[in-house]
Write a structure and sequence with these properties.
single chain; 3% helix; mainly beta; six-stranded antiparallel β-sheet; 331 residues; Beta-galactosidase, Chain A, domain 5
C-alpha cells in the first residue's frame, strides 16, 4: 500500500485535489485559481493547518485577499496598468482613469484549472493543474499556457510552475505565489520572521518600486525592515519586497516564520527571484492573523524594469519553470 495518495474531492460544488500521506499530512487545492486552501501537518500530537486559506466555496470564488493566488503572467502590480515591451506600449486598462487604474496579480486568479494529472507512489503524491486562460486581451496580446504541479513528499509541499508561450510573438511573463501562513492563533506580532535578503525594494504610496536605482536600498540602511536575523515581527507593518536573496547549499533561498513558544515554523523556499512579505494590515478580514511570504520570479512592476527584460521574456514555443515550496520546522 502506498504511503501517499492523490485524489479528487470537492468542497460544496468546488472541485478540489487532495494530496495526503500516512502521517496525516494533507494538502487541499481548489481547482478554481489553483489555490491551496489547507495544508495540515503534525504538531504536538495533533494536526495543524499552516495555510490561512479559504474555508468554503463562496470564499474560494470571492478570493478576497488573494490567499494562495497563482500570479501569472505577472506578480504584484504593474505601474499605472501600462508597460513597454519590444518597443510597444501596452495598456492593461484602456479607458480607466485615476483611482480605477490598478491591476495586480495576473490573470488566473479566477481561472478554473483542469486536473491534468494525479500520481502517487511510495515517495510522493502530485497533482498537476493546467489552464489556457491567458490569451490575447486588452494590453496583453500574448498567449501563455500554464501548469502548476503540486507535490507532497518527505520535504514538504513543492510547486513547479511551467509557462509556455503558445503565441507567435515573444511575450513578457513571470510567476509568483501569494501564500498566507500561520504558526499560531491571534496576531502575528509575537511570531519570529527571517528573510535572507540583502536589499529592500523601496516603493511609492502606490506600492510601485521607485525608478532606477532608487528602488534598491541596502538593509544595512533600513534596520526597521531588516529580518536577516530572525526576530519578532512586533508592530512592523510589512507590504515589502526583498531582493538579493542569500542561498543555501542546495541553491535555494529560505524565509521563515516561527512560533516563539515551541519553535514550530513554516519555511518558504524558492530557487531564485524576489520575496514579498505582507503582514496583512489592510485586509478587511483577518488583518495581522497570518503572514504572506510570496516567492516571485521577479519583483513587482518587472514589465517596466529594463534590468528584468531578459528574465520576463519568453520566446515563441519556449517554456520556463519556476520552483518554490513549503517546509515545516518542528522546533
Amino acid at each position: 500500500m502506498s504511503g501517499y495518495i492523490a485524489e479528487r474531492a470537492a468542497l460544496g460544488s468546488e472541485p478540489l485535489v487532495v494530496l495526503r500521506d500516512d502521517t496525516g499530512r494533507r494538502a487541499r487545492i481548489a481547482c478554481h485559481g489553483a489555490a491551496l486552501i489547507g495544508f495540515e501537518v503534525p504538531r504536538a500530537g495533533t494536526l495543524y493547518d499552516v495555510a490561512s486559506g479559504y474555508q468554503d466555496e463562496p470564499a474560494i470564488r470571492a478570493r478576497r485577499g488573494s490567499h494562495f493566488a497563482i500570479m501569472v503572467p505577472f506578480a504584484g502590480r504593474v505601474g499605472d496598468g501600462r508597460y513597454h515591451f519590444d518597443g510597444r506600449e501596452h495598456d492593461l486598462q484602456p479607458g480607466a482613469r485615476g483611482a480605477a487604474r490598478g491591476i495586480m496579480h495576473g490573470f488566473v486568479r479566477d481561472a478554473d484549472f483542469a486536473i491534468a494529472e494525479l500520481t502517487a507512489d511510495d515517495s510522493s503524491a502530485s497533482a498537476t493543474l493546467a489552464t489556457s486562460a491567458i490569451r490575447p486581451r486588452p494590453g496583453y496580446p500574448f498567449a501563455i499556457d500554464l501548469d502548476v504541479r503540486f507535490t507532497l513528499d518527505a520535504g514538504g509541499l513543492g510547486l513547479a510552475a511551467t509557462m509556455r508561450n503558445v503565441g507567435e510573438d515573444p511575450a513578457p511573463c513571470f510567476f509568483g505565489w501569494h501564500p498566507y501562513f500561520r504558526v499560531g492563533d491571534g496576531k502575528v506580532d509575537d511570531w519570529l520572521l527571517e528573510i535572507p535578503a540583502g536589499t529592500l525594494v523601496c516603493t511609492g504610496p502606490d506600492l510601485i518600486p521607485l525608478p532606477g536605482r532608487a528602488a534598491f536600498v541596502s538593509l544595512d540602511r533600513a534596520p526597521a525592515f531588516d529580518f536577516r536575523r530572525q526576530r519578532r515581527i512586533s508592530d512592523s507593518v510589512l507590504d515589502t519586497g526583498y531582493v538579493d536573496l542569500d542561498r543555501d547549499r542546495d541553491g535555494c533561498s529560505r524565509s521563515r516564520i516561527s512560533h516563539p513558544g515551541d519553535g514550530f515554523g513554516v519555511v518558504l523556499w524558492q530557487e531564485r527571484g524576489a520575496t514579498h512579505a505582507f503582514t496583512g494590515d489592510t485586509l478587511q478580514q483577518g488583518a495581522r492573523s497570518a503572514v504572506a511570504l510570496e516567492p516571485m520570479e521577479c519583483m513587482a512592476d518587472a514589465f517596466n524594469r529594463p534590468e528584468f527584460g531578459d528574465a520576463v521574456r519568453l520566446e515563441p514555443g519556449a517554456r520556463r519553470t519556476f520552483r518554490c515550496g513549503v517546509e515545516i520546522a518542528n522546533g
